[in-house]
């Protein structure tokens, strides 16, 4: 966990940090390692302008810290934080995590 926080402190901009945290929060809420989230939802959860969100996502994609998968037309993109790129050995929730949560 310490490596995660150290990696987050190395974010090049406030937009990168906020976007990473927003994706992590949405992914944690879904119980998966990734989440479907629209750019307007990132704007809403980070309080960043549309330009800042677009720039932050572009920077994070270029650095390889997140991935974006287009699921279907007119659907939000699926984003995933690449933990290993952040220096963190985490592969998303494990089966034992789901059992503890009562799933």
Structural commentary:
The chain has 103 residues and is mainly alpha-helical. It has a single domain, classed as Arc Repressor Mutant, subunit A, CATH 1.10.10. The chain contains 5 helices and 3 strands; from the N terminus they run H-H-E-H-H-E-E-H. A hairpin with an 8-residue loop joins strand 2 (66-69) and strand 3. The longest helix is centred in the first third of the chain and has 17 residues, at 14-30. Mean pLDDT is 76; it is low at 92-101.
Task: Give a topology summary.
Elements lengths: L1 H8 L4 H17 L3 E3 L2 H8 L3 H14 L2 E4 L8 E4 L13 H6 L3
Antiparallel strand pairs: 1-3, 2-3
Helix pairs in contact: 2-4
Key words describing this protein structure:
103 residues; mainly alpha; Arc Repressor Mutant, subunit A; disordered C terminus
Mean pLDDT: 76
Strand content: 5-15%
The name CATH uses for the topology is: Arc Repressor Mutant, subunit A
Rounded Rg:
14 Å
Named at the architecture level, the CATH assignment is: Orthogonal Bundle
Q: Into which percent range does the helicity of residues fall?
A: 40-55%
Give me the CATH superfamily.
Winged helix-like DNA-binding domain superfamily/Winged helix DNA-binding domain
**Series of secondary-structure elements, N-terminal to C-terminal:** HHEHHEEH
Number of helices: 5
Structural class: mainly alpha
Largest sheet: 3 strands, antiparallel
Spatial shape: globular
- Kindly, what is the distance between the CA atoms of the first and last residues, rounded to a whole number of angstroms? 24 Å
Low-confidence stretches: 92-101
Number of domain modules: 1
Strand order of the largest sheet: 1-3-2
Give the tally of β-strands.
3
CATH class: Mainly Alpha
